[in-house]
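Task 17 of the worksheet. Students: predict the tertiary structure of the chain below and write it out as C-alpha cells. Keep your answer in the requested format; marks are given for formatting as well as content.
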Amino acid sequence: MVPRSFWFGLAGFWLMAGGFVSAAYGQDTSSTTPRPPRADTSGSANPPAEPEVTTAIELDDDDVFVDEEWGEIEDIEKPAATDTASNSEDDLSVEWDDDDEASDADSLEPGKPEDPFSLTGVVGAELRTFPFKPGFANQKKSTFSPALIIEPELIYNWNGGKDRFTFKPYLVLDKDDNNRSHFDIRELSFLHQGNGWDVLVGVSKVFWGVTESRKLVDIVNQSDSVLDGDNEDKLGQPMVNFNVDSKWGALSLFVLPGFRERTFPGDDNRFRGPLPIADDNPSFQSGAGKSRVDFAARWSRTLGAWDVGVSHFYGTSREPRLLLGTGAGGQPVLIPRYDIINQAGLDVQYTKDAWLWKFEAISRQGHGKRFYAAVGGFEYTEYQIFESQADLGLLLEYQYDGRDSSDAPGTFADNDIFAGARLALNDEQDTTSLIGMIVDVETGASFVSMEAERRIGDSWKIELEARFSLFIPDNDVAAGFRKDDLITLRLNRYF
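Model answer:
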C-alpha cells in the first residue's frame, strides 16, 4: 500500500510547482487576448465578465493612462467597503467552491438593450481517485472513478431587461455511484424587476454568508452532498422571493414550498460511513412531510466599512439527524430525520485596507435545547508579492458549535481552527491555488483541502482538488471516513 504521506506530498508539490512555473512563464496580464470563461469549482456555467482596460488619453503631447481595473482573481478582490454578504449566489465573498459565479444576465439593467437569448454552459469530464482501500468490506474498491458533468444555462430577457426567464439543469453521470448519478434543476425561474424592488418565482439558489471554512447562516438551499462531500454544492429550491432595496438596507422575503431531501452516497460507495443510509425512507417531524411550506427572511446593509446581514429561517431543517433503524433483512441502517427548526443568523464583514474580518453566528431552536454556533476570523491579502503580479491571501478562522449531538445533527466543526493560504498569479491563464487545514482542538483530528485551477486556451479549464484526513482517532465522529481520501482531476469545456 502506498504510504499516505506520499500522496499528500505529491499533491502539495503539484500545487506549488504549478504556481511557480506559471509565475515564471505566464503571459502578460495587460494583454487583451480573449480568455476562456472562468467558473467556480462548483461547476456553474457562468464565467465572470472580462476586466475592462482603459486606453490612453492624449494630453499635452503626453500619453496619460488611467489606472487599470483590478484583474479577475478567483475569490479574491481588492478590499473595498462593498456588500459581500449578499443574498445572491453571485456573492463576492470568498468561497471554497461553490456557486458564486456571476452570469452576464445578473448585471442586466432595466432598459438596457441586450440580446434577448443567451445560451451558455459547461461540460466537464472528471476523474476521481481514492489512494487507499475502503474502510468497510462491502464498499467498492474502485481506485479510479470517472464521471461526466453537464450544466447548460438558458436565459431569455424581455421588456427592456425588466423581465427574465432562467433555466439551468444539472446532470451528473458517475460510473460507480448510482446515487451520485442524478439530474437536478438548479434554476427554473421568472424574475421581474421594478423600481427598487424585484420578485422571483420558481426554482433558484441563494447564498448567505461571508466566512471561508464553514457556511453557518446559508440555509435556504439543500446540500447536494454526493458531489464533493463538503456540502457546498446546492440543489435548486422552489421559492417565491421578494426583494426591496432602500436607504435602510436590502430586505429579502422567501416563501419556500416543496422540501428537498439531502443526497447521500450509495450503500456500497465511498463517504458512506460505517452504516448505510436509508435515504429512500426518511422521517419528518411535520405531518406534511416534503409538502410543508417554509419561510425565510434576510436584511442586509453596508455601513461604511461594515457589511451586516441578519436572517431568520422557520421550517424543515436542511440538516437531517441520522437515527439508527432496521433495513431490509434486519440489517442496521441510518434513517434521516428532518425536524422543524427556528434559526436566527448574523453575518458581518469588516473591510480595512488588505484585511477582511469575517464573522457568522446562529441560534437554533428545534434540535433539543436551543444552541449557538459561530465561526470567525480574517483574510489578509499581500498584493504583488516579491514584486510580481501574484497575490497571496492568508486565512485564519475559529469554529465553535454548542449543539448536543444526541438531539441535533452531528458536526465536525464544534471546536476547530482553520488556517489556509490562497495564491493568485493574476496571469493570462488565471492560475490560482488554495490550501487549507482544519484541526480539532481537542482530538487533533485534521482535514486538509487543496485546490488548483488554470485556463487552457479560449474555452477550457483544468482543475485539481484533493481532500485528506489526518490523525483521526478511532472514537472520532469522522473515523468512518478516514480511508476516503480523494484526489479529483476535472477538465471543463465552456460554451
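Marker's comment: Helices lie at 4-25. The chain is about 5% helix and 45% strand.
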